[in-house]
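ok new one. same drill as before - structure tokens go in, u give me an amino acid for every spot. 190 of them this time. try not to just spam alanines like last time pls lmao
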């Protein structure tokens, strides 16, 4: 297991963990910074202070109760549906690619793409505002046109690693994809 430190597109620290299970199986995981108690406390305190101010002006205790309820529900929703702690990519040369997102609440979302559907893994670029942002994506092969691409599946959408981290992941994926491409050709030659 190897772990390296990088930065995301926004400048936040992230870590890339590489596990090589076998020659044709690698797991690459990008960990985002955990939720900071300080920022969480500040946001909660600000919301509750604003609610207390409204309570003082309106003299209605429902304002305080509603603020507490809405803040707690909002926090639970944020932890369960928005805040992703880790995004991982498991590349198995003979089977496919599994993409997993682990949320702060413990929930996991997993997608599996069969290797027969994978055309390539590429680093793409997008222009956002006045910035060029790089992202890794899987190109899915069009069943009707072997040269065409039916879909582009972006990876690491939450952590948004910078180019240096993406290059590491890209190289690992390409090594396994190249093994898959050369394996059928070499097995037929005797």
């Amino acid at each position: 297991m190897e772990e390296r430190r990088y930065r995301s597109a926004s400048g936040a620290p992230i870590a890339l963990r590489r596990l090589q299970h076998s020659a044709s199986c690698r797991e690459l995981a990008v960990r985002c910074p955990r939720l900071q108690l300080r920022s969480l406390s500040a946001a909660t305190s600000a919301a509750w202070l604003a609610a207390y101010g409204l309570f003082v002006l309106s003299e209605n205790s429902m304002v305080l109760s509603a603020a507490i309820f809405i803040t707690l529900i909002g926090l639970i929703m944020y932890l369960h549906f928005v805040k992703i702690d880790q995004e991982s990519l498991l590349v198995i040369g003979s089977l496919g690619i599994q993409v997993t997102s682990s949320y702060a609440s413990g929930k996991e979302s997993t997608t599996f793409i069969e290797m027969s559907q994978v055309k390539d893994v590429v680093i793409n670029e997008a222009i956002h505002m006045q910035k060029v942002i790089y992202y890794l994506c899987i190109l899915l092969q069009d069943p009707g046109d072997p040269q065409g691409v039916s879909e582009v599946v972006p990876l690491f959408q939450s952590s948004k690693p910078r180019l240096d981290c993406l290059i590491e992941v890209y190289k690992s994926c390409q090594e396994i994809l190249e093994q898959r491409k050369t394996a059928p050709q070499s097995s037929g030659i005797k």
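The two ends are 37 Å apart (CA to CA). and btw The chain has three helices and nine strands.
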